[in-house]
Amino acid sequence: MSTIVYRLAVVLGVLLADVPVGPKLGLCWLLWALSAGRCLRSRGAVCPALAAGGLPADAVRRSGAARAYGRWASQSLVPAWSQRVQPAGRWQAPQDAGCRPVACALLGCFRPWLSGGVGPHDPAGADQALPALVLAVGAAVGAVGTVRLPLGRLLLRATAGDPSDAALQRRAVTQAGAAWQPDAVLGGDAGGGGAARLTGGGPRFGARGARHCTARRHGRPADTGRGRCPV
Q1: What's the CA gap between 138 and 106, in Å, rounded?
Q2: Nearby residues of 107 by Cβ (< 8 Å), 6 or more positions away
Q3: How confident is the model at residue 190 (pLDDT cuts 50, 70, 90)?
Q4: Where are the strands (E) in the chain, listed by range?
Q5: For a tag site, which of 39, 147, 149, 194 has the least CB within 10 Å?
Q6: d(CA 222, CA 229)
Q7: pLDDT tens string 4-38
Q8: What's the CA gap between 93 and 86, in Å, rounded?
Q9: How is residue 229 annotated by DSSP?
Q10: pTM (two decimals)
Q11: Residue 129, SS3?
């Protein structure tokens, strides 16, 4: 086998080091299918992606059961991935005036058969709220050589008690401000706004304004002698 296959197997072993023995092998097969891009070909379907890798039917069932019922959490896999990538020295984060950009956004999984924790999500292209499973994803911006590679730092799911986008945005901003370095600049889309970032405890942030906004100067402009006087 090629060197890349061996290196990928080592990386998966490091990521799953703290996972219990029961679901470890099934999750390894699942992550291997994700790394090979088979979930893109199956449009997100887990079992067809596993079967496309040559696994027998019983192994596909065990991997699906490990994903759904195994004792593991994505919150432990995300920092393990960061701790594996950064010491290698090939991933570099851009820096401007002593600031490193960190992106945070909400993603909606629109599936008609989803249940539990499904709330209204307002995507940019729909102009209306649609039922979806909403996730908050945070990643440090960087690259390996000339290829952009966001380094995942945060992954949260909306709670069943309050599945709204605003509640998830507040949780994401609060955890991002508490866990990331002081030189990080938290950025996001216009959905979060600046109010949540001001109260979330983040040291520095950048917020894109809404599509329509009203602004004013600190002082009244001088009268030009034409038209109505400024007020």
Answers
A1: 9
A2: 134, 135, 136, 137
A3: low
A4: 91-92, 100-109, 118-121, 130-140, 143-144, 147-148, 151-157, 184-188, 205-207
A5: 147
A6: 9
A7: 878 888 888 878 887 888 888 888 888 888 888 88
A8: 10
A9: P
A10: 0.65
A11: coil
